Amino acid sequence: MTTIKPILLAEDNPRDAELALAAMEEHHIADKVVVCHDGAEVLDYLYCRGVFASRQHGNPVVVFLDLKMPKVDGLEVLRTIKNDVNLKPIPVVMLTSSREERDLAQSYALGANAYVVKPVEFHQFIKAVKELGVFWGVINEPPPEYSERIK
Amino acid sequence: MESVTQERPTTPASVRSEPIPEGGPAPAPKTGWLMEWFTHWSIERRVLAGFGLVFTGIVVISAISYRNTAILIENSLLDTKSHELVQLLDSVGEALGAAESGHRRYLVTGDESYLISYRTVVEQMPDYLRYLRSLTGGGLEQQARVAALEQLIAKQLRAEAGAITQREKRGYDAVRHLALSGAAKNELEGIHHLMMELDSAEQRALLLRVAQSAGSTRNTIALLGLGALLQLMLLASVYFLIHHDVTERRRVATELQSRGELLQAANKELEAFSYSVSHDLRAPLRHIDGYAALLSKAAGETLNDKARRYLQTISDSAKQMGQLIDDLLVFSRMGRQDMLRTTVNLDQLVKTVLHDLRLDLQGRTISWTMHPLPEVLGDPAMLRQVFVNLISNALKFTATRPETKIEIGANKRNPAEVEIFVRDNGVGFDMQYVNKLFGVFQRLHRNDEFEGTGIGLANVRRIIHRHGGRTWAEGALDQGAAFYFSVPLARASR
Q1: Distance from CA of B307 to the nearest CA of A (A)
Q2: pLDDT tens digit string along B460-481?
Q3: ipTM surpasses 0.85
Q4: Which residue from A minimizes the CA distance to B289?
């Protein structure tokens, strides 16, 4: 493992993004986080195009996905990821304000790996984001890089 | 935003099948008051009245037809008698004529063989006369004539008998004038006259009866025709009324459906709106709380106590609003969620609820009175929410009591429905505000007295309404409260 695999955070709200980064800061994983501000940007990152055309190849260790995003929404991004053979192994965690049954059901049906409702209380929010970051970024063993194994 | 409707434990309005007289008597005024009065009848009454009339018509017409037919049969019997009478008169006349002429020949010749027909008449006359009397059974006039005829015949026969005796004793000369003119000439003429009268009277009666029979038959036919027409008319009007009613019902049903659809659409829009508002409101709250926390962390050392309390208040307020929004979301979801309808064992349900609330029960002295609860028809998760809310409420508002008393039970008011109640000995409420209890965000206590967002009882009402039941409450300040709701029973027979 020569390069540090990034955590991709898709969050259209800059304040939410900042709060999430502040939470991860406490566990010194903030520098691994790449923030995208809408669904289209997420897809650009994953397919190494647009502003991410020159980035180092390789999938993120986890994608934190908000449901409500401009341009391409969270469910659309999720569908694209899970329908692509190369992107499919990436763990996707829905991180959203919605506790709606419908959103939950649709996310899991599309193959989400986890669904987390953002707590209103900051301490709980910090705790949740920190635990997520630590679990997916540190504890969890990410899938092997497909581009390396499959010719 | 007060949505509380008056809902006391009044008896539910009985369901009636009559068409609703929406907007008063609508049908055309030209039909008059009778029609108007009639249209106020229920469909059942109208049909019953229609069939009653038809039935009465049939009975009346049948009775008249029966009477007419009976007359016809009686007339035909009388006719037979009349024809027999006429024939009998002919035979009697003939026999008398034969006897008379035979008798006269005997007077002339003295040859006894001429007396055969005379003797036969004498022998048979009583039978003939008896027969005659029986045939004139009805008419008094004819009876009188028969009686007169009898006397005349007897007289004539006597006169002839006298002539025969004289001839035997004194010879031809003694009876010559009798042989020429005939013995009892006057009587014989009288007899013929009477017989003709009898005959013509009988013929007249016969003719009269024929006319009467023909009239009666015509009458019956006309009556039957009229009856059929009448019944057709009645049936047609009954059909018209039913048809009118059915059309009206169909129209009302269609209108109800279209209004229901409109309502449903409006409801959906409202739900989407409330969902979106609640959802979007959470983000800024998270930011307020988050940045307040970050600020207190970044500048905590340099802040004085007052400033730290301000920050804490900002944080607390944000959390409280978050709780309100969460409750609102639950409330909104309760209205939209698909509802199950299965048998729910309430005894079991309450047990699991108490188990779930065990943390709230710790450190409390509670005396429970649990009456057996029935099985009801409904959504288990929703009904569970009802009990959670009501029991939590009871626990909350009895927290200031040294000993908490909570009673849960059921009253069966009718075979299809049961009333469940949760009663406590808590702080109670003023009945003056009873209508506010079940409203959204309606509270009867200050937040520093008892915590809460004022959504619990609104949720209870919403759930119970979706089950087709009612909610109400009774209480008095400082004397406890009782909350009631009604739900359909699982089996109506219980």
Answers
A1: 19
A2: 998 999 998 999 999 888 888 9
A3: no
A4: A122
Q: At which of B183, B203, B229 does a domain end?
A: B229
CA separation for the pair A30, A32 (Å, rounded):
5
What pLDDT is attached to residue A4?
A: 64
* pLDDT confidence bin for B484, thresholds 50/70/90: very high
Q: How far apart are CA B71 and CA B360, in angstroms?
A: 97
pTM: 0.49
C-alpha torsion sign, points B273, B276, B278, B284: negative
**Whether pLDDT at B285 is above 90:** no
Q: Identify whether B165 is part of a domain.
A: yes
Q: Name the domain count of chain B.
A: 2
Please judge whether A15 and B279 are an interchain contact, meaning their C-beta atoms are less than 8 angstroms apart: no
In contact, A118 and B284? CB cutoff 8 Å: no
> What pLDDT is recorded for position B454?
79
Domain that holds residue B390: 339-488
Does residue A93 fall inside a structural domain?
A: yes
Does residue B241 lie in a domain region?
Answer: no
Give the nearest partner residue to A120 out of B292, B318, B337, using CB atoms.
B318
Of B166, B196, B229, at which residue does a domain stop?
A: B229
- What is the side-by-side order of every strand in the sheet holding B404-414? B366-370, B404-414, B417-424, B481-488, B471-475
Contacts of A98 in chain B (CB under 8 A): 279
Indicate the number of domains in chain A: 1
- Residues of B whose CB is below 8 A from A19: 286-287, 290-291, 294
C-alpha–C-alpha distance, residues B482 and B134, integer Å: 98
- How much is the pLDDT for B256? 93
CATH number where B119 lies: 1.20.120.1730
CATH number of residue B418's parent domain: 3.30.565.10
The percentage of residues in chain B with a pLDDT greater than 70, rounded to a whole number, is: 91
- A67 lies in a domain? yes
Q: Which of B279, B283, B293 sits opposite A123 (nearest CB)?
A: B293
The CATH code of the domain that includes A97 is: 3.40.50.2300
Taking the CA atoms of residue B321, residue B325, residue B328 and residue B333 in that order, the dihedral angle to the nearest 10 degrees is -160
- Kindly state whether residue B292 falls inside one of the protein's structural domains: no
Domain annotation covers residue B27: no
pLDDT given for residue B371 in this prediction: 92
Inside any domain, residue A113: yes
Compute the average pLDDT of residues A27-38: 83
Residue of B274, B276, B279 to mutate when probing chain A, most A C-beta within 10 A? B279
In this prediction, residues A62-90 reach a mean pLDDT of: 89
Statement: residue B407 has pLDDT above 90: yes
Contacts with A22 from chain B: Cβ below 8 Å: 290, 294
Determine, for residues B292 and A97 on separate chains, whether the beta-carbon distance falls below 8 Å.
no
Strands, DSSP E only, in A1-151?
A: 7-10, 33-36, 62-65, 92-96, 114-117
Residues of B in contact with A68 (CB under 8 A): 279
Using a CB-CB distance cutoff of 8 angstroms, which residues of chain A are in contact with residue B286? 16, 19, 97, 118-120, 122, 125
Min CA distance, A120 vs chain B (Å)?
Answer: 5
